C-alpha cells in the first residue's frame, strides 16, 4: 500500500486494486494468527498480503492513534473478555536512531502505554515539560550527549521521574552499577531490547491500571 498521510485522515493506496481509502475508516483483517492489519474498503485485501516490506512501510508512517487502535485490537483478540485499559502512562524514548525510536514506540504502544520520542538529550529535556512522561528510556551514547548525564540532570530536576538507560556497549555489571549509583538510573536495558524484559521494567516503574469488563 502506498501511504499518503494528512492531518485528518490516513489515506493509503491498495496494492491490489490500486484505489485509495482512509485507513482510519476501515475494519481489521481476519488474519487471527497474525498482527491485526487494516483492510482495503474496496477489495478487502489487507496489508499482510502485500508482503513484509510494504507492511513495515505502512506501520512506519502510521499515526500514533492508529497504532494505539491496533494495540487495543490486539488486546481484544488476546483476551477478549478479560481486561480494559483505563490509563496509559506516557513513556519518553530518547535515541538518535530513528529506526530504534520507531521500534521502541511500536512495542510500547502495543503494551498499552502512551509514547513520545526525542532524538537528543536537549530535545528530551524540552519534551519532559510538555509531554509529562512517567518513564524516560534513553540511549547511553548519542552524538549530541550522554544519556547517563541526561539521567543525572533529569533526576536533579525531577527526582520522581523514572529513567531507564539503554545500551548495546556497556552491558558489564560494573557499568550497570555505575549507571544506578553515579547517574541515578532506575534500571538498565541491553540492546537489542527484549520485549518481555522491557515490559517487566515498565510495569514495575509505571504499572498500567486496568479493570475487568462487566
Task: Note down, in words, how this protein is organized.
Helix 6 links the parallel strand 10 and strand 11. The strands form 4 sheets. Strands 6-5-7-10-11 form a 5-stranded parallel β-sheet, with helices on both faces. Strands 1-2-3 form a 3-stranded antiparallel β-sheet, with helices on one face. The chain has a two-stranded antiparallel sheet with strand order 4-12. It has 2 domains: 2-78, no CATH class; 84-211, 3-Layer(aba) Sandwich (Rossmann fold). With 214 residues, the chain is α/β, with parallel strands linked by helices. The N and C termini lie far apart (38 Å). It has helices at residues 52-61, 64-78, 98-110, 121-131, 147-157, 173-181, 195-205; strands at 2-5, 10-13, 20-22, 84-85, 90-94, 114-118, 135-139, 141-142, 145-146, 162-167, 187-190, 210-211.
Tags for this model:
214 residues; alpha/beta; Rossmann fold; five-stranded parallel β-sheet; three-stranded antiparallel β-sheet; 37% helix; 21% strand; elongated; disordered C terminus
First-to-last CA distance: 38 Å
Quick one: how many beta strands?
Answer: 12
Query: Which stretches are low in confidence, meaning pLDDT under 50 for 5 or more residues running?
Result: 80-86, 210-214
Q: Approximately what portion of the residues adopt beta-strand conformation?
A: 15-25%
Sheet with most strands: strand arrangement = 6-5-7-10-11
What name does the CATH topology of the largest domain carry?
A: Rossmann fold
- Count of helical segments? 7
Q: What is the CATH domain class of the largest domain?
A: Alpha Beta
CATH architecture of the largest domain: 3-Layer(aba) Sandwich
Spatial shape: elongated
Q: Report the CATH superfamily of the largest domain.
A: Response regulator
Please state the average pLDDT score: 81
Structure classification: alpha/beta
Share in helix: 25-40%
Q: Indicate the radius of gyration in whole angstroms.
A: 19 Å
Reading the helices and strands in chain order gives: EEEHHEEHEHEEEHEHEHE
Most strands sheet: 5 strands, parallel
Number of domains: 2
